[in-house]
Design brief:
This is Transmembrane protein, putative. Keywords: Membrane, Transmembrane, Transmembrane helix. The chain is mostly helical. About 80% of the residues lie in helices and about 0% in strands. A two-stranded antiparallel ribbon has the order 1-2. A hairpin with a 2-residue loop joins strand 1 and strand 2. Helix 5 runs antiparallel to helix 6, helix 6 runs antiparallel to helix 7 and helix 10 crosses helix 13.
């Protein structure tokens, strides 16, 4: 908008700054500037900010209310209550800088001096009032105004200066001042987000450490002797007949079932002892009128142990029935396979007799593989059954 009103001199004629195809002070320029540009510029730059300022001034005692804060809080929320109008001062500063830059486009020295005056005036008022609620923001605001004023002054010193050493010194000073200011702002931002950055860094380190640990676990190799033994046992297993394979499979399953059964029994015994101790402690604490006697105490403890044993037997009966059912199913499957494979070839029987010496090693090797990988045995047996069917 402002660039449409400002002009630049080219030769003997002056042209519009934003479009040099049109000359200034012509009838067309005067018509559009008076009918279109000036009204929009006045409404956006003067009328709307003035209306907002008047509304905030009328409600200056109710700035903390929910209604005013939701509507106009973005204009005064970060400032102190006695300097609620500071945002409009910043708008006036920016507008005056834009006007100076556009109307004095070709006069670089005048333009620079006006901008320095505007920035210094703003800095003096800001240092006196300290409008921000936080002291750090006041410090950054005053520092930024000083950096801007000093940078513009050094740029004016460089402009059309015949002394090269002054130009070099001013360039170096501009570079150092602005780089140091940017580094200061970045350190403040980093300090503000320090906790969040630490949490992100900890999360990433934990994730990377877990990946490295998993890779180390996957890279661990099995003992070569054990691997060779497993390989031989698997080769021998492949040459066995179906009867021998079924025997090996059912023996491994029986071993697993017996281990599970013994573990369940041990847990039940531990639970029985804990329950008996708890009941004895309750009986001792709840019966203060009973005279302590060793015989009576022992008979009571025996009676309570028998009672807890009966309760635990009833609870674990379902698990025992399941285990017995698994054993019956495994024996039935074994008998059915034996009946089906009675008329096997002599070649398979000879191979099974030749490999019978490695039978205990096969069981141990398969049990070791099954402990390391629980899904190994079922997958291997499925593959062998499909091969036999083919």
């Amino acid at each position: 908008m402002i660039s449409l009103l400002s002009c630049r001199q080219i030769g003997n004629n002056s042209y519009i700054l934003s479009n040099i195809n049109y000359t200034c002070n012509s009838d067309q320029y005067n018509f559009y500037s008076m009918s279109l540009v000036f009204p929009f510029l006045i409404s956006w730059v003067i009328v709307i900010p003035f209306i907002l300022l008047v509304h905030i001034y009328r409600n200056r005692s109710k700035l903390d209310s929910l209604f005013t804060n939701m509507k106009f809080g973005f204009l005064y929320r970060e400032y102190k209550s006695n300097v609620y109008y500071w945002e409009f001062i910043k708008i006036a500063q920016k507008l005056s800088i834009i006007l100076a830059l556009n109307f004095y486009y070709q006069n670089v020295v005048i333009k620079g001096l006006l901008v320095i005056l505007i920035i210094t005036a703003y800095g003096i008022i800001s240092n006196k009032l300290k409008p921000y609620k936080e002291d750090e923001q006041n410090y950054i605001d005053s520092l930024s105004t000083k950096v801007c004023a000093l940078t513009i002054y050094l740029c004016l010193l460089m402009y059309q200066n015949d002394y090269k050493y002054l130009v070099i010194i001013s360039v170096l000073m501009i570079f150092i001042i602005n780089i140091s200011f940017v580094c200061f702002i970045l350190t403040r931002v980093f300090h503000g987000y320090k906790q969040k950055i630490q949490k992100i860094f900890e999360f990433l380190t934990i994730k990377v450490f877990k990946k490295q640990k998993q890779q180390q676990i996957s890279k661990k190799q099995i003992n070569p002797k054990l691997r060779e033994k497993i390989r031989r046992s698997l080769i021998n297993y492949c040459y066995l007949s179906l009867d021998k394979r079924q025997e090996i499979m059912f023996s491994v399953l029986n071993n697993q079932i017996s281990q599970q059964f013994s573990a369940i029994k041990a847990q039940q015994n531990i639970q029985k002892l804990e329950q008996s101790q708890k009941q004895e402690f309750k009986f001792e604490t709840q019966s203060p009128y009973i005279i302590p006697n060793q015989n009576s105490h022992s008979t009571l403890s025996i009676f309570k142990l028998n009672e807890t044993q009966n309760q635990s037997d009833i609870i674990s009966q379902y698990q025992k029935d399941q285990l017995i059912g698994l054993k019956i199913k495994s024996s039935n499957k074994r008998q059915s396979f034996i009946k089906k494979q009675k008329n096997k070839n002599l070649f398979d029987t000879n191979l099974s007799q030749a490999q019978s010496e490695s039978y205990p090693d096969d069981i141990n090797a398969i049990q070791m593989m099954d402990q390391s990988n629980p899904n190994f045995l079922p997958q291997f047996m499925q593959i062998q059954q499909t091969n036999s069917l083919k």
